[in-house]
């Protein structure tokens, strides 16, 4: 399907070139010979970029590269790129395949230290305990439920690792994003296809707040500024910012009110909250949308916005959508990774707070219907990207920009990707109704040795 679209675009570009250059005889001969292809092109197909503009873009990119303006890493960046990561220390081997959590497509999966109510055995050990935290796999699926599954090394009452210990349904539609308050782990933030954003108390299971301010799917929901701000992005082309209501008891769960709505050209797809550092003192969110070639950096204090053009030659041609955006886990978030829906499988590594493209990565199977997701490893030396061939691709940051490894096992669309830095574990989920946990070669070997030791005993 993608190949046919590219062939159609190429034919239209040649036709437009012959028309604008006045080659009437050549145009007539071309239209006659290519009649079958031209007649088969849908009238609704968008007009492709003119051939001369495509060639101009290519020449401009070459010129930038020759002048050293395309890749101009700082000394610190050059040193970071020159220090290779250890591929053997990052998740690349399947540790566990979980197929019995949901009977339907799984949309989202992540790990979290979830706050729960202490059980009797917990209180026997510590009578003063009011909140217990357990390591859990948190999943959202097409059955509209959010389930909490105990991870290895955790028990909760009679439940053992691998067992579901809580089920919530905060939405009437499928949940698309999940985040947890950084200071109140019992406060779970979710957004969904039912156009709502919900705050749920994971200890009581009760709804803390329910917001209905969007008109379409709410695809992104994140806490910012130590939990004092919530940012949501929707296919209704808006981003909403909620702030903690003043005058609240600091010992109570915070309550929020809508403070600002930002409007954009297209549906919001990518959204990333930047870490606050000594050089970045204002809480900032980066937003990417459809029908727009800019990344929007929004100061969440005063809502001032800085736009950075994702096109090297600074034109306003929109050729891809930034589907997923995240910041590097090291170097104070110095890099911004953008996964696009370009048919070339393009991933762009920007310098944060800049339009500078440090590297471009290609080769991940992608098309205009893809929803690529990515995740960094904890060292910031590698990242993973989902392809539409049901595989996960691993790239090294810097270096040759070549694919370092491919993680295979899913049999349908991979919808979610999450990195657990504490466990050094990659979590993937998808439409094959499974969650897969990936660990490093050394961790897998250690686990197998431990298992063998127990069997020997």
Automatic annotation (TrEMBL):
<protein>
    <recommendedName>
        <fullName>WD40 repeat-like protein</fullName>
    </recommendedName>
</protein>
<dbReference type="GO" id="GO:0003723">
    <property type="term" value="F:RNA binding"/>
</dbReference>
<keyword id="KW-0853">WD repeat</keyword>
<feature type="repeat" description="WD">
    <location>
        <begin position="407"/>
        <end position="438"/>
    </location>
</feature>
<feature type="repeat" description="WD">
    <location>
        <begin position="211"/>
        <end position="252"/>
    </location>
</feature>
<dbReference type="InterPro" id="IPR001680">
    <property type="entry name" value="WD40_rpt"/>
</dbReference>
<dbReference type="InterPro" id="IPR052234">
    <property type="entry name" value="U5_snRNP_Component"/>
</dbReference>
<dbReference type="InterPro" id="IPR015943">
    <property type="entry name" value="WD40/YVTN_repeat-like_dom_sf"/>
</dbReference>
<keyword id="KW-0677">Repeat</keyword>
<dbReference type="InterPro" id="IPR006594">
    <property type="entry name" value="LisH"/>
</dbReference>
<dbReference type="InterPro" id="IPR036322">
    <property type="entry name" value="WD40_repeat_dom_sf"/>
</dbReference>
<dbReference type="Pfam" id="PF00400">
    <property type="entry name" value="WD40"/>
</dbReference>
<dbReference type="GO" id="GO:0071013">
    <property type="term" value="C:catalytic step 2 spliceosome"/>
</dbReference>
């Amino acid at each position: 399907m993608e190949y046919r679209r590219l062939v159609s675009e190429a034919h239209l570009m040649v036709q437009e070139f012959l028309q604008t250059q006045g080659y009437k005889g050549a145009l007539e001969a071309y239209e006659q010979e290519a009649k079958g292809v031209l007649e088969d092109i849908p009238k609704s197909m968008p007009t492709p970029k003119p051939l001369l503009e495509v060639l101009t873009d290519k020449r401009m990119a070459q010129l930038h590269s020759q002048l050293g303006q395309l890749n101009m890493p700082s000394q610190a960046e050059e040193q970071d790129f020159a220090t290779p990561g250890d591929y053997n220390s990052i998740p690349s081997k399947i540790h566990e395949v979980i197929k019995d959590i949901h009977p339907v497509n799984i949309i989202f999966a992540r790990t979290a230290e979830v706050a729960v109510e202490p059980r009797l055995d917990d209180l026997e050990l510590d009578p003063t305990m009011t909140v217990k935290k357990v390591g859990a796999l948190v999943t959202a699926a097409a059955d509209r439920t959010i389930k909490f599954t105990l991870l290895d090394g955790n028990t909760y009452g009679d439940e053992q690792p691998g067992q579901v210990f809580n089920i919530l349904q905060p939405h009437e539609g499928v949940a698309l994003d999940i985040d947890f308050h950084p200071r109140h782990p019992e406060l779970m933030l979710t957004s969904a296809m039912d156009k709502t954003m919900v705050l749920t108390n994971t200890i009581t299971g009760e709804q803390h707040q329910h917001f209905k301010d969007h008109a379409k799917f709410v695809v992104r929901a994140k806490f910012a500024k130590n939990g004092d701000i919530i940012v949501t992005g929707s296919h209704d082309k808006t981003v909403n910012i909620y702030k903690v209501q003043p005058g609240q008891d600091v010992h109570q769960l915070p309550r929020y009110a809508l403070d600002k709505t930002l409007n954009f050209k297209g549906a919001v797809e990518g959204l990333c909250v930047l870490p606050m550092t000594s050089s970045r003192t204002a809480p900032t969110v980066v937003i990417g949308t459809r029908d727009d070639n800019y990344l929007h950096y929004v100061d969440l204090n005063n809502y001032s916005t800085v736009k950075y053009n994702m096109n090297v030659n600074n034109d306003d041609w929109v050729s891809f959508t930034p589907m997923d955006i995240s910041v590097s886990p090291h170097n104070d978030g110095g890099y911004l990774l953008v996964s696009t829906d370009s048919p070339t499988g393009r991933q762009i590594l920007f310098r944060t707070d800049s339009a500078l493209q440090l590297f471009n990565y290609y080769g991940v199977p992608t098309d205009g219907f893809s929803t690529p997701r990515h995740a960094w490893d904890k060292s910031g030396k590698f990242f993973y990207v989902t392809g539409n061939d049901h595989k996960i691709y691993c790239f090294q940051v810097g270096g040759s920009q070549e694919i370092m490894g491919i993680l295979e096992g899913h049999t349908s669309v991979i919808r979610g990707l999450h990195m657990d830095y504490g466990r050094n574990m990659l979590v993937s989920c998808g439409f094959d109704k499974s969650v897969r946990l990936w660990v490093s070669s050394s961790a897998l070997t250690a686990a197998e040795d431990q298992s063998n030791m127990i069997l020997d005993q």
